[in-house]
Hints:
The protein is of the alpha/beta class.
Amino acid sequence: MGASTIRRTAAVAAVLLAATACGGRGDDGGGTAASGACKGQQTTGITDKSIKLGGIYPLSGPASAYGDIPKGIKAYFDYVNAEQNGIGGRKVEFLVRDDGYQPPKAVEEARRLVEQEQVFALFQTLGTPSTAATWDYTNQRKVPQVFVATGASLWGTDTRHPWTIGWQPNYVSEARVYARYLKTDRPAAKVAVLYQNDDFGKDLLGGFKKAIAGSGVKVVAEQSYEVSDPSIDPQMRNLAGSKADVFLNVTTPKFGSQALAADARNTDWNPLHIVNNVAASRTVLQPVGFKNVQGVVSATYYKDPTDPQWNDDAEMRLYRAKMKQYAPGADPNIPYHAFGWAVASSFHKAMQAAKCPTREGLRDSVRNLNNVQVDMLLPGVTLQTGPDDGFPIESMQLMRFKGERWELFGNVIDTRKEFGPLTD
């Protein structure tokens, strides 16, 4: 599942953090809750009227397409602040930092947000490498690192980092959805895989192999790439030579677009193309040309703003109106904006459910979500966690690109029920 590599990355990061990572409640400038069951808990970054959050994203660099996510988050919080008096009467201040998809920079920004900005919590650190580099620090400091924007399965299976939790479906669950689809529709499929050579790519690929074990579906070719690579054309040529009838594209946006384009150019190889969710945005497909990505398959768990079936949906209408009002320069049709809106709404629900308005209260709340409905998620997809389940979302629905948009097909697949719980 990539756990050993994540742990090695975290260990290296810990060396950088050793000088400041030993503190807990007493040395971070925080106060304590006023009374009752919350007495003695951390209230750094939160008052009766405000709450300060920090997010770390690749606003620059090879994964900069994800920079659209905080725009949706900020629009949601601006809307809540202006029209709902914040969350429980607390106005949300959301600080966004750029790490360029570089783990050492993520460490630097996490320290700045926690120690200088005195944030209540890190709400989203994007990327498996960046989260792996920072989660030892946040857990040593007892700072919530909630709803991280990465689907690595370790965030849910690891028990040593209770202050860190994911949000989106983990990569193993996503891989299970693709495996189920192929075992049903193409039971003798020969699969070629392109994957990012880090814990993100290895996690999804490993989950896929485990899910197809014992079936007629076989992986016949694998090629990896590095985030620093300028192109994945050599890998695509090698995969095409395998003559596989399915191509599993496990990439981040920049390389997802390159792989889609390479597949479109090669008229001698016409596999079923499955692209993982994190590279399935229209911003990835559009440069390739929509006519060149017809029939591509992926999976999702939140509503697509370009899907006309949501035109009369109350949450989608609210989202569009408030994006126009609070983020006038952002295109509401970009799914990453809707992702941001959905995860911000999820934080809102979790914070409202917290028994104490403290760091400990938020930590406990996100690990005790009982079928919480978030209106931007697909019908049938809810937030569910518990003592033995650190994965808020494990349901997805398949989708196929047709015309100029994705079309959902089949039913929502709850991987908890169909495959059982994940274990490390």
